């Protein structure tokens, strides 16, 4: 009789199958494949590819009570310590202690042997990389925040570089759009990785079908106010966005370049893959400077009148604080449904504005559609920066009802968040009031499908020229429908060719609208709706 000893063997792999038994869980691990930089090794690997793919996975048994079961799911990369029994002659035999037999339920002996055949008991399980399953990612994020898992389970494949990012993400409500988008982004990065240019690896560019092109071109031809490039006036740095090489994390003599809203200067932006400082300085800050210049002629400057500004979806208060600092006569009200963002915004305003924070800013936690339906609103200017989907349309119609100037930058063209609200441009298209195609061009499709196609084309980021055309079309439809809406409410006059409509024959008050754009390097969603009321 030969004696044996137990040794521990470490093995890594990806979970490709998971089976649950009464007290144990069976995990099938596909061994980790190492990249080869040597050409000969690569050729040899290619020759053996078929053999490697057919190689059976390693079967591991883990107790169902083990805490690792929270993240041991398909797609997770793990490292396990296996208990192996080795005979004196050097022969290793796999040993599994399942203890899964139920004395009440007597099963066939052969089946019990097959259940545990080829399995090895796992003494210890370590997570190397989180599964791309969106349902598991929040669990692992919480464990990272609690210190139960290392950040490396994400950081090697995603833009998460410090625990502060994780904590900031977890502070958002589970149904918050920013949180859901970030988790989807993390899931994609765990699946495909990130290339050297900090862009998500993608497959072939999506194909735009011919009939989709036809819809876009036909609507462009039949939509009022779609005019050549001068209508969407590009703004250069010299005429629109001032050159700003200041450090956004430090205060200067310029009151606008206040300390930016950065919890940690080394933290990374989850959505953009760069540090928050770089994102604020290179992308968001130039957009704010551009907006401030657009707001300049809209501000009341008689020395005693307050300009009441409403920031729709203002969240953390970056824009609101910048407006309050740039225009001493302004009072900014921020309306957002994210309570945690508003708390951060209040703190940022107090830090930047000091004792005047409460006099210069207000933060209201509310759904904007509900807020807009209330009475006694009296604002001079409405701003909504990167307002998602129909939130932009709701802000436009609210500005119309208040007869307020507006600067609105739409985003997320396919999104519809507001229950029971139909944007006027979609309603007009469905009723053939805004778009009236000729009989020869009439396509056998419903208007809702055409709208959905154009919205989808606006989000084709891999085809920026198509996205720009679709965004321009949608925004021109928005502006024209807005003028028609005001015409129906207050006047029987037709909109003028210069993009204005007179709404009061006594005071000659009219609304002038235009579509502008800023540098696409700051954001791909760079078209801005601008409206100004004037009295002649």
Task: Please write out the topology.
Layout: E1 4-20, E2 24-31, H1 39-47, H2 49-54, E3 58-63, E4 77-87, E5 92-94, H3 109-116, E6 119-129, H4 137-146, H5 152-155, H6 163-171, H7 177-192, H8 210-222, E7 232-234, H9 276-295, E8 307-312, H10 318-326, E9 330-336, H11 339-353, H12 357-360, E10 361-365, H13 368-373, E11 381-388, H14 390-402, E12 405-411, H15 424-430, H16 447-458, H17 464-490, E13 500-504, E14 509-517, E15 527-535
Parallel strand pairs: 3-6, 7-14, 8-9, 8-11, 9-10, 11-12
Antiparallel strand pairs: 1-2, 1-4, 2-3, 4-5, 4-6, 12-15, 13-14, 14-15
Helix pairs in contact: 4-6, 10-11, 15-17, 16-17
Key phrases:
3 domains; 536 residues; OB fold (Dihydrolipoamide Acetyltransferase, E2P); single chain; 15 strands; Rossmann fold; 17 helices; alpha/beta
């Amino acid at each position: 009789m030969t004696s044996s000893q137990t040794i521990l063997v470490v093995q890594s792999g990806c979970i490709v199958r998971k089976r649950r038994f009464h007290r144990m869980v069976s995990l099938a691990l596909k061994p980790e494949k190492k990249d080869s930089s040597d050409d000969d090794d690569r050729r040899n690997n290619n020759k053996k590819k078929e053999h490697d793919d057919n190689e059976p996975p390693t079967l591991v048994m883990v107790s169902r009570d083990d805490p690792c079961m929270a993240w041991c799911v398909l797609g997770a990369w793990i490292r396990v310590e296996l208990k192996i029994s080795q005979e004196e002659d050097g022969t290793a035999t796999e040993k599994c202690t399942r203890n899964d037999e139920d004395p009440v339920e007597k099963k066939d002996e052969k089946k019990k042997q097959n259940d545990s055949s080829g399995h090895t008991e796992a003494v210890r399980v370590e997570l190397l990389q989180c599964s791309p399953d969106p349902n598991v990612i929040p669990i692992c994020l919480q464990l990272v925040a609690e210190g139960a898992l290392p950040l490396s389970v994400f950081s090697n494949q995603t833009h998460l570089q410090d625990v502060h990012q994780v904590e900031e993400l977890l502070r958002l409500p589970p149904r918050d759009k920013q949180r859901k988008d970030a988790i989807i982004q993390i899931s994609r990065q765990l699946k495909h990785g990130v290339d050297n240019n900090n862009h998500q690896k993608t497959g072939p560019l999506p194909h735009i079908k011919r009939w989709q092109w036809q819809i876009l071109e036909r609507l462009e031809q039949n939509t009022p106010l779609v005019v050549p490039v001068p209508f969407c006036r590009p703004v250069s740095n010299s005429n629109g966005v001032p050159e700003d090489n200041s450090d956004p994390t430090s205060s200067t003599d310029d009151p606008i370049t206040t300390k930016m809203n950065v919890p940690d200067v080394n933290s990374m932006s989850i959505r953009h893959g760069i540090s928050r400082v770089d994102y604020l300085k290179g992308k968001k800050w130039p957009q704010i400077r551009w907006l401030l210049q657009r707001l300049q002629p809209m501000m009341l400057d008689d020395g005693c009148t307050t300009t009441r500004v409403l920031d729709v979806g203002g969240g953390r208060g970056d824009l609101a604080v910048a407006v309050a600092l740039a225009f001493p006569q302004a009072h900014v009200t921020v309306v957002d449904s994210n309570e945690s963002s508003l708390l951060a915004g209040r703190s940022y305003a107090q830090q930047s504005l000091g004792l005047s924070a409460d006099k210069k800013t207000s933060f209201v936690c509310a759904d904007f559609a509900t807020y807009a339906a209330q009475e006694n609103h009296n604002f001079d200017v409405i701003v909504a920066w990167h307002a998602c989907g129909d939130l932009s349309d709701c802000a436009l119609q609210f500005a119309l009802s208040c007869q307020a100037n507006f600067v609105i930058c739409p985003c997320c063209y396919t999104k519809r968040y507001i229950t029971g609200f139909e944007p006027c441009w979609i309603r007009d298209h469905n009723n053939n009031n805004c778009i009236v195609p000729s009989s020869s061009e009439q396509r056998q499709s419903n208007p809702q499908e055409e709208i959905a196609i154009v919205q989808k084309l606006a989000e084709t980021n891999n085809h920026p020229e198509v996205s720009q055309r679709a965004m321009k079309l949608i925004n021109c439809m928005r502006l024209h429908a807005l003028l028609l809406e005001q015409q129906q409410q207050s006047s029987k006059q037709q909109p003028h060719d210069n993009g204005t409509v007179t709404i009061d024959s006594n005071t000659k008050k009219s609304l002038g609208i235009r579509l502008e754009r800023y540098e696409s390097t700051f954001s791909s969603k760079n078209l801005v709706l601008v409206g100004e009321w004037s009295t002649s």
